[in-house]
Amino acid sequence: MAIRSILINVEDVKRSVDFYTRYLGAEVVEASDDSAVLDAVAGQLRLVRLGAGAGGAGAGGAGGGDASTWIPDDLQAGFRHVGFKVADMDARVDALHKGGVPFHLEPIHAEGDVRITFFYDPDGTLLELVEGPLQYHEVFDREAVDADWALGTPTRPRFDHVAETVNDLEATKQYFGELGYSLMSGIHQPSDDRGFEIAFLRDGDTSLEIFTYEKVEKSKRQPQLEAPGFLAVEFEGGMPPGAESVGTRAGLEIVADPDGLLHAVTGS
């Protein structure tokens, strides 16, 4: 399991625990007023209250952190969403609708013969549900794809991937290769005139879903450690060359990859 956890800054730990257990079947490992750890089958969600344990670049006071500069535009480099595999898309979407959860994209059939939908957690983290085994257009590592499919239909939502927009796929492959990732597969987007392609880097039971756009410019977000929503990915392994330290949060040194994805590396 190359990704140990997803760190998320939250305004209210209890509210976020309720959201993730109610709508995404996460199970509580531990929880307090300042933090919580939730099991999401193939990894953990670590919720950290804004203002608790603040430190490093962009740190805010105890009043709830900084306004996030993340925007729901895949042309902003860095973090894009957290994805979960599900077996019961319609039932979960119905529950989300009844709960008044805001959607970014209602369910659609997508390239790769899967159904997907996007919505937001209480602090603005963009989440994706994926139903069905993804049928890749290109396979570069047959063994990794077979292992992916062998995970089967999840009995409860299973953390599956983190998506990132990058400027240079080859540089991204090299960077995350230091953490044990290799190119598994790809999906084309023939109807998108921006030159949109998706590559999947794999290690263990989860992926990095890498977006590239060859025909348009991308923007870059400055690191924020005390803004609501997604904070960082916690990886296993050694620190990649080129990682830029941006401060500390939740007891971890947080670094940025060349495209601004914040992450920590905590060893194997």
Fold and architecture overview:
The structure is a single chain. This protein is mostly beta strands and about 270 residues long. It folds into 2 domains: about 5-70 and about 225-265, 2,3-Dihydroxybiphenyl 1,2-Dioxygenase, domain 1 (Roll); about 75-215, 2,3-Dihydroxybiphenyl 1,2-Dioxygenase, domain 1, CATH 3.10.180. The chain contains 4 helices and 18 strands. The chain has helices at about 15-25, 90-100, 140-150, 170-175; strands at about 5-10, 25-30, 35-40, 45-50, 75-85, 105-110, 115-120, 125-130, 140, 160-165, 180-190, 195-205, 205-215, 220, 230-235, 245-250, 250-255, 260-265. Strand 16 (about 245-250) and strand 17 (about 250-255) form a beta hairpin. The longest helix is centred in the N-terminal third of the chain and has 12 residues, at about 15-25. The chain is globular, with a radius of gyration of 17 Å.
Task: Give the overall silhouette.
Answer: globular
| Uncertain residue segments | 55-63
Reported for the largest beta sheet, the result is: 10 strands, mixed
Class from secondary-structure proportions:
mainly beta
Cα-atom radius of gyration: 17 Å
CATH level-two architecture of the largest domain: Roll
Distance between the termini: 9 Å
Order of helices and strands: EHEEEEHEEEEHEHEEEEEEEE
Count every beta strand, where a strand is a DSSP E run of 2 or more residues. Answer: 18
* Number of domains as seen in the coordinates: 2
Mean pLDDT: 94
**CATH topology (fold) name of the largest domain:** 2,3-Dihydroxybiphenyl 1,2-Dioxygenase, domain 1
What is the CATH class name of the largest domain?
Alpha Beta
Protein name: VOC domain-containing protein
GO molecular function: metal ion binding; methylmalonyl-CoA epimerase activity
InterPro entries: Glyas_Bleomycin-R_OHBP_Dase (IPR029068), Glyas_Fos-R_dOase_dom (IPR004360), MMCE/EMCE_epimerase (IPR051785), VOC_core (IPR037523)
GO biological process, one term: L-methylmalonyl-CoA metabolic process
